[in-house]
Design goal:
alpha/beta; binds zinc ion; single chain; globular; 5-stranded mixed sheet; binds 5'-O-[(R)-(carboxyoxy)(hydroxy)phosphoryl]adenosine
């Protein structure tokens, strides 16, 4: 039984994995505290983690109907993320590990995301092309087996979720921007504005979303703010179609190039309804198996960390308590 913590950004989360499944997944979101600033304020985040961790741990234990003494190992995210946030959950887990005399396992946040589609679909991890699209990352990672990853592509500038958040701010929607744009896009015309699809060249697996963001920025002054209701949904739909087009096309291309037959999609942006729809249609047409992270395990959560912790524990991988957090921890 693994008790895991996730505090890499603005969610304080604890989860217990035991008996082959997630027994509890408790999350305290700080979104309301950061909303007035239009993004995450690191100092506010770390103070909030300290305040919430005790109660979130109690909740995770209670939900799972488990005593602290039943826990066999403690896991925590060690990076990448905000240093001042990572250190809180990491130190908390190490302290429990020391006081309970049980092993500690540090988990890479990105590996948590990458493995979450297997947790979501109850499948054993297998060779696959993984798209991780979140607020901090847009990554293509080839997985041969758990722990054996190859970096295939990443964003050269903004991450996909970051582009959603920045465009949302420009058009007056609250942070985080993804859910709001997703909702408005449902009634919009995705063909009204012809936004660029960057880095679509064949020999390249990287992404770029800053040109798309800038296109929205230059379009806005040309539109009449008094007619906002007339164009808002169309901007959302057109912007979203460009993001989805690039993510789906490039992921499928990389999957074929590396002779893989399975795609996994994870990270906050994998909640996006249009991304899920287009991936489903295209993978079906191409005969590629698609494993989507379920929405509850897509945005930051500790269940994906507990699951990754369980897989490490099975491989007898534990972490020395002297190992520090790393805000820039790579997945490969
Ligand atoms: O994985 P996550 O919770 O945190 C990071 O590790 O970054 O991802 C958060 C990101 C935010 O940028 C948010 O706008 C985006 O995921 N997001 C979405 C949707 N829900 C969350 N983007 C597009 N459509 C959504 N429905
Ligand atoms: Zn994340």
């Amino acid at each position: 039984m693994i008790l895991a913590f996730e505090t890499s950004c603005d969610e304080t989360a604890a989860s217990i994995f035991g008996g082959g499944k997630i027994l509890s997944s408790a999350i305290s979101s700080q979104i309301e505290e950061h909303r007035p600033f239009g993004g995450v304020v690191p100092e506010v985040a770390s103070r909030s983690h300290i305040e919430a961790l005790g109660a979130i741990t109690d909740l995770a234990l209670k939900e799972a109907n488990v005593e602290l003494s039943n826990i066999e190992a403690f896991a925590a995210t060690s990076g990448p993320g905000l240093a001042s946030s990572l250190v809180i959950g990491n130190t908390f887990a190490k302290t429990l590990s020391l006081s309970e005399g049980k092993p500690f396992i540090s988990i890479n946040h990105l590996e948590g995301h990458l493995l979450s589609p297997f947790l979501s679909t109850n499948q054993t991890p297998k060779p696959s092309m993984g798209l991780i699209a979140s607020g901090g990352h847009s990554l293509l990672i080839k997985m041969d087996q758990v722990g054996d990853y190859t970096h295939i592509g990443s964003t050269r500038d903004d991450a996909a979720g970051e582009a959603y958040d920045k465009v949302a701010k420009m058009i007056g929607l609250p942070y985080p921007g993804g859910p709001g744009i997703d909702l408005l896009a449902k009634n919009g015309d995705p063909t009204r504005f012809d936004f660029p699809r960057s880095m679509m060249e064949r020999d390249n697996h990287d992404f770029s979303f800053s040109g798309l963001k800038t296109s929205v920025f230059y379009l806005l002054p040309k539109l009449d703010i008094n007619d906002r209701d007339e164009w808002l949904e169309d901007i959302c739909a057109s912007f979203q179609e460009a993001v989805v087009d690039v993510l789906v096309t490039k992921t499928i291309r990389a999957t074929k190039e590396f002779d893989l037959n399975t795609i996994t999609v994870s990270g906050g942006v994998s909640c996006n309804s249009r991304l899920r729809e287009v991936f489903t249609e295209k993978c079906e047409a191409e005969g590629i198996e698609l494993l989507l992270s379920s929405p509850e395990y897509s945005t930051d959560n500790a269940a994906m960390i507990a699951y990754a912790g369980q897989l490490k524990f099975e491989q007898q991988i534990t972490t020395d308590l002297s190992e520090d957090i790393n805000p820039n921890l790579p997945i490969t």
